[in-house]
């Protein structure tokens, strides 16, 4: 419980630092401010509570905040829906999902669905961002990164990650924010906790992003791949939750119709289709 409260305090402080006074209708502080973002007292006023009570929340001394209090704090700092949900979980007010024993098993119907996207890159991720299944296009896109099945490890430890992901900083930031959201949803998942511990030690860039305490679902994203002999491939990704396997996500990346990226995807499909025809 103490760890959860420490996590709650860290998240509140980080969120407060990111909230500019003008974002919540307060006058800008200019050079008179000693802290970045909002002061504790300002959050307390905006949330309709005493400064002492809010200070106890951040310090972990208030261990049983009500849903109404957390809602008021989230509203005061204009938290996004994802961030507000994360806030509730850290306060122990939203039931954290437990990691199922079969969380890494992909349902056969989902495996069939992957092949229903022949002109798109489609793959399934575990709560810890292991690639559990992928279609032929996704396999071709990720081929230069073979040997590292976890996408977070790929981004921060694979020597070719920055070569393949043309907009690496954007992809890395979004992935870490989504991983932190999963860590709140699955606090008992050893794959997530082990991954965070490993990368916090091995990668300064990961550690800095993790300490930002930002959370956001992957939902929709724009990714640019650069492959040898193929070149630049631009895809718009949409992410879907797999409801019968909480924490699993299906990602589908599609190119703009008629674009050079669409032609590149066709060239990636061709070898796989020739192989299937001769099998």
From TrEMBL:
PROSITE patterns named in the record: HTH_CROC1
InterPro entries: Cro/C1-type_HTH, Lambda_DNA-bd_dom_sf, MLTR_LBD
Domain of life: Bacteria
Protein name: Helix-turn-helix transcriptional regulator
Sequence segments annotated as region (Disordered): 11-34
Gene3D superfamilies noted in UniProt: 3.30.450.180, lambda repressor-like DNA-binding domains
Pfam families, alphabetized: HTH_31, MLTR_LBD
Annotated ranges, domain HTH cro/C1-type: 33-84
Source organism of this protein record: Streptomyces glycanivorans
PANTHER family reported in the protein's UniProt record: BLL4672 PROTEIN, BLL4672 PROTEIN-RELATED
């Amino acid at each position: 419980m103490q760890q959860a409260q420490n996590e709650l305090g860290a998240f509140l402080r980080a969120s407060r630092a990111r909230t500019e006074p003008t974002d919540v209708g307060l006058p800008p502080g200019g050079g008179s401010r000693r802290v970045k973002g909002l002061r504790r007292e300002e959050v307390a006023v905006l949330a309709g509570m005493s400064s002492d009570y809010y200070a106890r929340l951040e310090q972990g001394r208030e261990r049983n905040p009500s849903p109404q209090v957390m809602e008021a704090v989230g509203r005061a700092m204009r938290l996004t829906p994802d961030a507000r949900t994360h806030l509730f979980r850290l306060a122990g007010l939203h039931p954290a999902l437990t990691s199922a024993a079969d969380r890494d098993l992909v349902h056969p119907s989902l495996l069939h669905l992957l092949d229903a996207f022949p002109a798109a890159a489609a793959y399934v991720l575990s709560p810890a961002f292991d690639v559990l299944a992928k279609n032929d296009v996704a396999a071709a896109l990720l081929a230069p990164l073979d040997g590292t099945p976890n996408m977070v490890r790929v981004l921060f430890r694979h020597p070719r990650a920055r070569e393949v992901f043309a907009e690496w900083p954007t992809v890395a930031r979004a992935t870490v924010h989504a991983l932190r959201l999963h860590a709140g949803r699955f606090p008992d998942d050893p794959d997530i906790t082990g991954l965070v511990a490993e990368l916090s030690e091995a990668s300064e860039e990961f550690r800095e992003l993790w300490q930002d305490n930002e959370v956001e679902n992957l939902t929709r994203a724009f990714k640019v791949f650069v492959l040898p002999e193929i070149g630049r491939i631009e895809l718009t990704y949409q992410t879907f939750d797999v409801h019968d396997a909480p924490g699993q996500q299906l990602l589908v990346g599609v190119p703009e119709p008629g674009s050079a990226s669409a032609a590149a995807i066709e060239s990636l499909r061709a070898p796989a289709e020739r192989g299937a025809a001769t099998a």
